[in-house]
């Protein structure tokens, strides 16, 4: 008989095979690409909410349910800033958390999805698509370039006035920037060899981009229907009991003087502190004329769109007299666009930004409303108001402090609408608790929401679009953003305050 083999001879092949298998598994695990939420932003967002919920003592004036909702709200806002997931996806996850934890009932959690203003915002995105699809937005902008574009400064005014003309009926500043004005600016700049991401950008393109983005904040503040955040501000104010009579007219009447002064002054100020190398653009009107010739005469879809938008804006203005809400007027306008074939239903379905906005706006508005209902916002407002009262600053001092804080805290936000959803109700409540006249507080905060849209490259959708064009250095974005922001604050504080006194807002 042969001698038995040693145990080590039996196990060597098994050990080697196991090692090989183990190594293969490790390699496969390491090669797996994580497709879910970004880990660090997710951890930070959840941790902030948990700290508030379990580590910060709950005030006696706030219920356990309200404190839980506030912690989820903090997590939601942190996620909107840090972006562990796309905005709509993150909002849905946090909304689910309110239901799973029984902080809110299903009905309470989804109540804002029937909010009129949110649906008005959604329909507005479809209107914007109509301007881009028919080419009417390009046509209007090119007409202003042809009339005023012989000099660089005149060219800037032509583009700015073109946007101001489109604003009331195209309620998306991001769509105006990406769909109409940045492509036009690029065409004009490249025609004189001013290229993006190149030293030649300072010839023309950099100035036109900076002038356009800095002026868009005032043109957007001029009309209630110029941007989604304007409508959201008014809705949140009304949920706090503030009555805004004849909303469209009141907004325009209160904004017209400071907004127009700012629109007229800003291109010159930017021209002085950030001058273009090319001062004359004699070829721009000819280029615009050629573009208009290529487009041909005004097409039937453009005539229909102009007629329907004129009708819609008229109904927005005269809505209260006709007992017709803004959202019904917008629904009527969209229905007519669909019936006449200017827009197809596929156009609406493919407008992803509209549906994404519906999801996360509704979540933010719903949470903010529930925080008010459960007493959190009133409690916070009273605490701040008591503190300001202890400083003996009066309502005007409180107004200045709160407005300034609301403005500059936007450096922490990557979206105007996220800022509104997170802070507008709270800051307005603080104003009201400090005895600031309600209509003054409501409109000033709303106008501020537009004026801080260009302080950084991430402060708004349009700022990101213009920065993405490649014509402006990041250093110049921050420098000019802060400079023009301070100038705008001075213009609106001086001329706005005088005008609002005449109107009787305070």
Please describe what this structure looks like.
By secondary structure, this protein is mainly α. It contains 24 helices and no strands. The longest helix is centred in the last third of the chain and has 30 residues. It is globular and about 70 Å long.
Short description:
The protein has 506 residues and is mostly helical. The chain contains 24 helices and no strands.
List keywords for this structure.
globular, mainly alpha, 506 residues
Order of helices and strands: HHHHHHHHHHHHHHHHHHHHHHHH
Poorly predicted runs are: none
Rounded radius of gyration (Å):
27 Å
Helix content: over 70%
Alpha-beta content class: mainly alpha
| Arithmetic mean pLDDT | 87
Shape: globular
Strand count, sense and barrel status of the largest sheet are: none
User: So how many helices?
Assistant: 24
Specify the oligomeric state: single chain
Beta strand count: 0
Distance between the termini: 112 Å
Q: Into which percentage range does the β-strand content fall?
A: under 5%
């Amino acid at each position: 008989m042969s001698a038995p083999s040693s145990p080590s001879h039996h196990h060597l092949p098994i050990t080697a095979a196991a090692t090989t298998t183990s190594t293969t598994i490790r390699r496969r695990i390491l090669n797996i690409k994580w497709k879910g939420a970004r880990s660090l932003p997710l951890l930070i967002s959840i941790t902030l909410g948990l700290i508030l919920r379990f580590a910060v003592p709950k005030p006696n004036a706030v219920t356990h349910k309200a404190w839980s909702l506030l912690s989820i709200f903090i997590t939601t806002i942190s996620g909107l800033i840090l972006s562990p997931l796309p905005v709509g996806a993150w909002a849905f996850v946090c909304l689910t958390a309110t239901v799973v934890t029984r902080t809110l009932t299903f009905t309470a959690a989804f109540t804002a999805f029937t909010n009129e203003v949110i649906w008005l915002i959604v329909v507005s995105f479809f209107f914007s698509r109509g301007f881009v699809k028919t080419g009417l937005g390009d046509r209007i902008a090119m007409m202003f370039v042809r009339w005023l574009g012989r000099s660089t400064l005149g060219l800037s005014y032509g583009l700015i006035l073109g946007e101001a003309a489109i604003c009331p009926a195209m309620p998306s500043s991001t769509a105006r920037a990406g769909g109409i004005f940045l492509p036009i600016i690029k065409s004009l700049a490249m025609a004189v060899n001013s290229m993006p991401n190149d030293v030649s950008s300072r010839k023309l393109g950099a100035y036109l981009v900076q002038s356009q983005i800095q002026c868009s904040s005032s043109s957007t503040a001029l009309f209630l229907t110029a941007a989604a955040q304007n409508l959201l501000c008014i809705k949140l104010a009304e949920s706090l009991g503030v009555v805004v009579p004849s909303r469209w007219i009141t907004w325009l009447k209160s904004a017209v003087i400071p907004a127009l002064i700012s629109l007229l002054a800003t291109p010159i100020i930017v021209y002085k502190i950030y001058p273009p190398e090319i001062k004359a653009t004699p070829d721009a009107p000819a280029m615009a004329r050629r573009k208009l010739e290529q487009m041909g005469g005004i097409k039937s879809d453009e005539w229909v769109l102009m007629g329907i938008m004129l009708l819609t804006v008229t109904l927005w203005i005269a809505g209260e007299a006709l007992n017709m809400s803004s959202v019904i007027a917008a629904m009527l306008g969209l229905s007519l666009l669909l019936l006449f074939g200017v827009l197809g239903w596929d156009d609406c379905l493919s407008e992803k930004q509209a549906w994404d906005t519906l999801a996360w706006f509704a979540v933010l508005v719903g949470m903010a409303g529930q925080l008010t209902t459960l007493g959190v916002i009133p409690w916070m407002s009273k605490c701040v108001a008591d503190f300001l009262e202890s400083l003996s600053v009066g309502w005007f001092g409180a107004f200045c402090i709160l407005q300034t804080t609301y403005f500059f805290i936007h450096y922490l936000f990557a979206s105007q609408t996220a800022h509104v959803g997170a802070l507008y109700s709270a800051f307005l409540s603080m104003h009201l608790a400090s005895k600031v006249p309600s209509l003054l507080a409501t409109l000033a905060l709303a106008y501020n929401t537009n004026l801080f849209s260009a302080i950084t490259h991430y402060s708004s959708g349009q700022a990101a679009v213009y920065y993405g064009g490649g014509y402006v250095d990041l250093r110049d974005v921050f420098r000019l953003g802060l400079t023009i922001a301070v100038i705008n604050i001075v213009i609106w504080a001086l001329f706005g305050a005088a005008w609002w006194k005449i109107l009787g807002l305070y």
